[in-house]
Amino acid sequence: MRFVFLLAGLVLPAVAILAPAPAAALSPGDTVTNMLVLEGKHVPLPRGAWTVAGTSRRSVDTPAANGAYGVIETVVLADIVEGRVAALAEVNANLLPVADGWGRTASCNKGDQLLLVTRYRTGWDLSCFFIVPTRIVDAAGPDAWMRAKEFLAQRGAALPETALTVGFRTSDRQDVVDIRLHFDPAFLPGVPASEPGAWTVEGIKADPRRLRAVEMLGTWAAGADGWIEAGIANRIAPGDAVEGPVRAAILSDTPRIDRKLLELEKLYDRGAITLSALGAQENAALAERPFIVERSGGLPQSVKKNLSFRFFGSFVDYLLAYSVTLNPAVSAGITASIVAVHSVIFVFNDMYWDDYFAKQASHDANRVIDFIYIGGPKS
Q: What sign results for the dihedral spanned by CA atoms 177, 178, 184, 188?
């Protein structure tokens, strides 16, 4: 028995040493490099040193089915370059896991975004990102942002008037990470000097130079969202770093694939896979294309299905009408009437059943759960 206690006395301290220490509380002025650990989740940040400018915690309105989630932790970080805020990172995460998912953010519903991409959306899981302009210098926001503005003013760090915001929402049945990265357009290559109203949605769409900046951010976001998905599963190593939009545009336009190729090389170096398997998986990686279930712009899915169905159905309707009337003009009129009425019925029926089955899959299929963001209560 004495041996058992002696062994426990040796093992327990060793376990305590090996066990990961809880993340220290963040305070304004702290520096975070490459990755933020927030409520046990790894949150990737563009490469470099980010200064914690403000933190806060708050409750949100969630359905009772979610269960206890503790609070929402909000952290605002700043990338300060020569006395100017080149970028802001606004991060929200839940403290405790829930039982029934976190729904969507209103920003991932179709609206006036410059870009909106939904990677996947099921009863509980969601991955989407978007790009919008956001008023910064005099914007309202969460308590973390109010404290951040005071901190940055004390540091003499100037805020941009308007930023290009790349927002990411990634969630599963238990957890959510909502990240909004606000980039000062003045630090993006090829962007003209600021002009009044130039960074509105209309102003950007009317200027090819500003549109190129949005395209660069969109390409970067399509690779960065994979890092966020890995982070919510705690699969980011301390040394890993996602390149920022400008550097990523210089280095590669396929960051997701490049990262996988590098990981495959590491597996081969460790002897985990053979040379033939390495070659086969590298070829498969080069052919990978991220699946996108929804992208802003274009026709809704129900309309596309209706057009396809109507093309063939109208031909059959015309033949049936002509077989009865033997009059081409009358048959065409009958067919046009059928197309008009049935098309409307088809779209609404399709939308109803899509919504019905989504709600059967989960309580949170289409509900919106938002936090308070920089630029407005629920911007």
A: positive
- Which 3 state secondary structure label does DSSP give 103? coil
Structure tokens belonging to residue 288: 């990978």
Query: Which among 86, 49, 114, 51 is positioned nearest to 182, based on CA atoms?
Result: 86
- Per the structure, the complete domain to which residue 307 belongs is given by 295-361
In angstroms, rounded to a whole number, what is the distance separating the alpha carbons of residues 285 and 43?
Answer: 24
The overall average pLDDT reported for the chain is 79
Same domain, yes or no: 199 and 59: yes
Quote the number of domains for the chain.
Answer: 3
Question: Is the same domain home to 273 and 307?
Answer: no
Task: Say which range, 112-126, 195-209, 308-322, has the weakest mean pLDDT.
Answer: 308-322
Element (H, E) at 351: helix 328-361
Please say whether the beta carbons of 100 and 66 come within 8 A.
yes
How far is Cα 215 from Cα 253, in angstroms, rounded to an integer?
12
Whether residue 290 lies inside any domain: the answer is yes
- In sequence order, the β-bridge partners of residue 258 are none
Q: Does residue 264 fall inside a structural domain?
A: yes
